[in-house]
Amino acid sequence: MSAAPVQQLSPQDYLAFERQAETKHEYVGGEILAMTGASEPHNVIVVNLAIEIGTQFRGRPCRVYSNDMRVAVSPEGPFYYPDLVAVCAERQFLDGERDSLVNPEVVVEVLSPSAEAFDRGMKFTHYGEIPSLREILFVAQDSVHIEHFVRREDEQWLLTDHTGLEAVVELPAVGCRLELARVYDKVDL
Predict the structure, then answer these.
(1) 8-state DSSP, 119
(2) What is the number of structural domains in the chain?
(3) Is residue 26 part of a domain?
(4) How far apart, in Å, are the Cα atoms of 32 and each of 9, 78, 79, 139, 144?
(5) Could you tell me the sign of the dihedral formed by the alpha carbons of 185, 37, 82, 66, in that order?
(6) Using CA atoms, how far apart are residues 123 and 184, in angstroms rounded to an integer?
(7) So what's the pLDDT on residue 7?
(8) Percentage, residues of the chain above pLDDT 90
(9) Is residue 132 part of a domain?
(10) Whole-angstrom distance, CA of residue 172 vs CA of residue 182
(11) In which domain, by residue range, is 165 found?
């Protein structure tokens, strides 16, 4: 006995579905993946990052979006909801709905036990296909640790680890700096 085939959705069908859905879903390889809720440390870190980056963007054309801005790897997908997205270039969207950004410069994922392998694997690979993307941050929620990937001119990713409350992450793509003491403010570890 074989399993029933999974119905594959077109990117257009996914977007039509997602724009009417009450909960968020990512789209990979024709399949819809339901998003789950986040822990308190995860939420505090995302808010702290949004405040830090947003404050540094004041008076500049840059924007920071929290986890409701969908990122389109290409017009055909995949489509993801990073925890944070930053862009200083003129924003480009998939269509007139302006809800699927196609030119992020920085993507941030706060790692959770249930999604860490996916974030580090398939999602990281797909993010690498976005030509505008210059930096990716993986932020731990159970320790003071940020992995900072910067795309080099040869298209290879350079990883720098930042650990401890005294550490600072420089984001050259968007001209920001993140003090880990502020990123982890009010996070119970």
Answers:
(1) I
(2) 1
(3) no
(4) 8, 10, 10, 25, 32
(5) negative
(6) 24
(7) 58
(8) 89
(9) yes
(10) 19
(11) 38-183
Measure the CA angle with vertex 173, ends 169 and 175; round to 5°. 65
Q: What are the tens digits of pLDDT across the range 63-99?
A: 999 999 999 999 999 999 999 999 999 999 999 999 9
Using CB atoms within 10 A of its CB, is residue 183 exposed (0-12), middle (13-18) or buried (19+)?
buried
Please state the φ and ψ torsions of residue 170, each to the nearest 5 degrees.
-95, 130
> Angle at CA 22, nearest 5°, toward 19 and 27?
55
Token pair recorded at residue 177: 């700096």
What is the spatial distance between Cα 181 and Cα 160, in angstroms, rounded to a whole number? 18
CATH of the domain at 135: 3.90.1570.10
Whether residue 146 contacts residue 138, with contact meaning beta carbons closer than 8 Å, is answered with yes
Q: What is the pTM of this model?
A: 0.92
- In tens, the pLDDT along 28-68 reads 999 999 888 889 999 999 999 999 999 999 999 999 999 99
Per-residue burial over 94-124, b if 16 or more Cβ lie within 10 Å, else e, is beeeeebbbbbbbbbbbbbeebeeebeeebb
